[in-house]
Amino acid sequence: MTKIIVLDRDGVINEDSDDFIKSADEWQPVAGSMDAIKKLKQAGWTVAVATNQSGIARGYYDRATLTSMHQKMQSLLVDCGVDWVSFAPYLSTDNSPARKPGVGMLTAIEQRFGSCLEKMPMVGDTLADIQVARAKGMQPYLVKTGKGLRTLAKADNELLDVPVFDDLNAVVEMLLQ
């Protein structure tokens, strides 16, 4: 069985900003996140990213710029990059099933790898990440990086049984024990 982990991008892999990450120069990894992904790859995991990117619809950046951000991420992973990046360039008001908490990106990941995501881990920093993981029967993990502390402060009942970690590296350390 293929071991697949799904990661949110902004706030989990790279630093987030309320003003959006609008260029490859602004795209900076969260401390330890690149090492965490490398550890997953070395342990035989398939690593997929599911990321809402409404900045495209808002006109803050275009698809070519998004591609340059992802190329930067891959170049930092040297020889063991992320296996798949799925993104939703829509606003929440578009009601697209691709945009989290809709399951479209996760369905695309399942189709890409011919594998069910049920019971697989998903790491995020927002309630939408937790909701989409649950909708697919995945095991959600919340990190405190990015919007994670803000998400925790809302004390939503949907978070009651969700394991919380300092960052992606801490999640990976637990998964690889």
From TrEMBL:
Pfam families for this protein: PNK3P (PF08645)
Q: Name one GO molecular function term.
A: D-glycero-beta-D-manno-heptose 1,7-bisphosphate 7-phosphatase activity
User: Where along this sequence does the record place binding of Mg(2+)?
Assistant: D8, D10, D125
The entry's localization annotation reads:
Cytoplasm
Task: From the UniProt record, give one GO term of the biological process aspect.
Answer: carbohydrate metabolic process
Cofactor(s) needed: Zn(2+); Mg(2+)
| Leading EC class | hydrolase
Q: In which pathway does it act?
A: Nucleotide-sugar biosynthesis; ADP-L-glycero-beta-D-manno-heptose biosynthesis; ADP-L-glycero-beta-D-manno-heptose from D-glycero-beta-D-manno-heptose 7-phosphate: step 2/4
Q: Give the EC number(s) under which this enzyme is classified.
A: 3.1.3.-
Q: Report the catalytic activity.
A: D-glycero-beta-D-manno-heptose 1,7-bisphosphate + H2O = D-glycero-beta-D-manno-heptose 1-phosphate + phosphate
The UniProt site entry described as Contributes to substrate recognition is assigned to R99
Listed PANTHER family: D-GLYCERO-BETA-D-MANNO-HEPTOSE-1,7-BISPHOSPHATE 7-PHOSPHATASE
Q: What does the subunit comment say? A: Monomer.
What is the designated name of this protein?
D,D-heptose 1,7-bisphosphate phosphatase
